[in-house]
Amino acid sequence: MSNSRFPEGFLWGGATAANQLEGAYNEGGKGLSIFDMVEFVPKEERTKSVEMDVRSETELEELLNADEGANFPKRRGIDFYHRYKEDIALFAEMGFKTFRMSISWPRIFPNGDETEPNEEGLAFYDNVFDELLKYGIEPLVTLSHYEIPLHLVQKYNGWEDRRVVEFFTRYAETVFHRYQDKVKYWLTFNEINISTLSPYIGSGMLIDRVENKEQAIYQALHHQFVASALAVKACHEIIPDAMIGCMLARMEVYPETCNPDDVLAALEEDQKNLFFTDVQVRGYYPSFMLSYFEENNIEIEMLPGDEEILATHTVDYLSFSYYMSMVASGSPDKKREKGNFFSGVKNPYLEASDWGWQIDPKGLRVTLKKMYDRYQVPLFIVENGLGAYDTVEEDGSIIDDYRIDYLRAHIDQMGEAIKEGVDLIGYTSWGCIDLISASTSEMSKRYGFIYVDQDDYGHGTLERKKKKSFEWYKNVIATNGEEL
């Protein structure tokens, strides 16, 4: 398969999050984050619809007082904190043009509401950025990737409290000033829409503290929208040559049939998904969402000037994750399949991953065209990949042809979308090195081009090994997508 569709300067790379790879949760002055409290639950024992959720004060207290043998995988990650030079050298060997990572907010402000940052945390990211730039790799940095300081949950119930806007803005301004000569690509909130499914992970809220769950979720989201816009404002003022974007967990939704009820259900699911980017890219709440609020007695408390802030400080580009598509039905009793936090009717035309996520490369092309038609701003795919079980052969090799097939098909469809006029500026494959799963805290659910010797319980040498996909992706980057 050969093409020459990708523009010169296309940003090829890989994506990670601090809470899934850094480890060192209690080193360098770091405070606890919300994900530090998520315990590993074996598959056969899972009962929650969103396994990473923490819902109550009681549950949080139990986790804080867990015994020494408790398994909190995101506290250990894959020890990037001590091994970042080794890992970045491997990324450079693959030819990465960019590396998407996040700054851990509680590494900079351990409690979140301090007035002065933690210098040891700031210095760590200085070192990481310097290492990336040594190899000519552009850092792409997410300000908040499920890394809300736990103290903000305990004291303020997270983003439900308007004061958290001020704390986040201070944090954003601190890192913009510190890294203004090192980081030119920024994102505000990772998968901001996840708050509707996990108020704890998305907004740092314990839902048993609120009277009206949906009211609280959308009020917290409003505060995040304002904080995102204020971060855009600060970034433009402090680093005028930088680009700052938003990030959505994208779910392309198809109607189950041509029955108008199914078509309408799919349209409404799509609107709910794109509401978040409507606010951040267009700068205002869409009319369909205002109608939804009215029908459901949701009243968003806005301060004077909020609407002007949202309208004036819109993002420079739109980034998103894409793993799968979904199917909507107008019939409420249809069986739903689970995947990437969302659920939908099973699509009989698609194969699925080891975790039941339906594989749909053409859906990526559909979503690229749809989103570019809607917004007319540059797009950036910052998460896409295949979670799978990998086997280390007797000779030490890892033959992950299934991963190559998945990525090849998606990259091919990206190229077709570019050829059809979509302004796509980059692609960072999710979990370019094996790390802890966000949704299940598993290590055995692997995405990377680089294998890390660690199991779900933290056993292993942490040795890094190149998979077959490592050399394949290296060649994709070297040929700017011409050879897949």
UniProtKB/TrEMBL annotation:
The Swiss-Prot or TrEMBL record annotates one GO molecular function as: beta-glucosidase activity
One GO cellular component this record assigns the protein to is: cytosol
Q: Which domain of life is it from?
A: Bacteria
Give yes or no: UniProt keyword Hydrolase.
yes
- Write down a Pfam family by its short name: Glyco_hydro_1
Q: Which residues form a coiled coil?
A: none
Active-site residues, Swiss-Prot/TrEMBL:
383 (nucleophile)
Q: Which GO terms describe its biological process?
A: carbohydrate catabolic process
Q: By what name is this protein known?
A: 6-phospho-beta-glucosidase
